[in-house]
Specification:
The chain contains two helices and 28 strands. The protein is mainly beta and 385 residues long.
Length: 385
């Protein structure tokens, strides 16, 4: 009798365990939230926005590291606001393609925004296809990783990281026509500890743009082109901007871009700030118009009202082992502020050669104004510091 009771108890325990595992999978414990279970069709025609928002709202409300699964298909969505805080870290497994509406009046601001989230992973090999819509925004996000996804044809910045920290971007592909304005690949502002590795970026603006208020940024193994290069700035346009301190750019290749490594600041800055402790190392330039440039007289308009010297102090900037070809004779250009000259600019082992003009001239030059620094090793063109 006791033996039978024991067997019955064991059987009941096993059945309860199986049932409990099934029920928990819908509530916590690495639960999977398939957007199709929330009504998404994925046919590229019907609006799946409500289904995506429902999947987010449900998964954000549970503990146990849930995952939103977006299977193969084309999902017309947006605008979407994935807002936290959530009860645990969130993951999105993007295998299909997200499509923005081509009707721009559908967006008052951004296409997809992730906000106030601590712990976020987006991966899966899928595509964010902007179709000319607004951008993919991450604001006030901590401890995030974006890996193995693509972003195509955004109207503005493809990926905008704002007021975030501990943010890794790895193995992403970003693409927009070379003549599309303001389609920066990745824009970073007011953030710290951002890492970008193994990215392929071709746009109509900066491949990576770094705005004010950033610290400890690391960029490596990025292939950039077409576009305007890897840029810090513009800085000093608005009051209240804060410093950019700590930037490392390594093992990157720039192909036929307008600029290579650029720092740009406005004249007549309303407030004083600094851009400091930058290291550029092991960079290859292929037919780049301005391979190395500091421009403290930046003005993208026909004329600018202010003509006072920039109040952005640039210092401790190192360029090491930057090699390749320049599509202009002026391969190095340092135009710094007369009120706050650039300090501690160092050129180590630079080899940049002009591809030549119609007359066969291949003389490569450098230009300096209000810059203090030094050169080491073999530097071509002849350094002006």
């Amino acid at each position: 009798m006791n033996s039978n009771n024991g067997a019955i108890q064991l059987a009941i325990s096993l059945l309860f365990s199986i049932w409990c595992t099934t029920c928990v999978a819908g509530q916590s414990g690495n639960a999977i939230y398939n957007v199709k279970d929330h009504g998404a069709l994925g046919n590229g025609q019907n609006d799946d926005t409500k289904a995506f928002q429902a999947a987010w709202d449900a998964s954000c409300a549970i503990e146990g590291n849930p995952t939103i699964l977006i299977p193969m298909g084309s999902y017309l969505v947006g605008p979407l606001h994935f807002k936290g805080p959530c009860k645990s870290a969130m993951a999105i497994d993007l295998r299909g393609q997200l499509l923005a509406s081509t009707h721009l009046n559908a967006y008052t601001k951004d296409w997809i925004e992730f906000q106030y989230i601590n712990g976020l992973v987006i991966s899966g090999g899928g595509i964010f296809h902007g179709q000319g819509s607004s951008s993919l925004v991450f604001s006030f996000v901590k401890n995030a990783k974006i890996k193995s996804i693509s972003s195509i044809d955004s109207k503005l910045f493809h990926i905008h990281i704002f007021s975030s920290e501990n943010f890794d971007i790895e193995s992403v592909t970003i693409s927009a026509p070379g003549d599309s304005p303001n389609t920066d690949g990745i824009h970073i502002a007011d953030s710290t500890n951002v890492t970008i590795t193994n990215a392929t970026i071709g746009t109509g603006d900066d491949c990576i743009s770094i705005g004010p208020g950033n610290s400890n940024l690391n960029i490596s193994n990025v292939h950039c082109g077409p576009g305007h290069g890897i840029s810090v700035g513009s800085l000093g346009k608005n009051s209240g901007e804060t410093d950019v301190v700590g930037l490392t750019v390594k093992n990157c290749t720039l192909n036929a871009t307008t600029n290579g490594l650029r720092i740009k600041t406005w004249q007549s800055s309303p407030s004083r700030l600094k851009a400091a402790q930058f290291t550029y190392q092991d960079i290859t330039m292929n037919n780049v118009y301005n391979p190395i440039i500091i421009d403290q007289e930046y003005c993208p308009y026909i004329s600018c009202a202010g003509k006072d010297p920039s109040r952005v102090q640039i210092y401790d900037i190192k360029f090491t082992n930057v090699k390749g070809t320049s599509s202009s004779a002026e391969a190095i250009k340092f135009i710094c502020s007369s009120s706050f000259p650039c300090q501690g600019v160092v050129l180590n082992d630079i080899d940049l050669r002009y591809t030549g003009d119609a007359t066969g001239n291949k003389t490569t030059t450098s230009t300096c104004a209000n810059v203090r620094g030094k050169s080491n090793g073999n530097v071509k063109p002849n350094p002006c510091i």
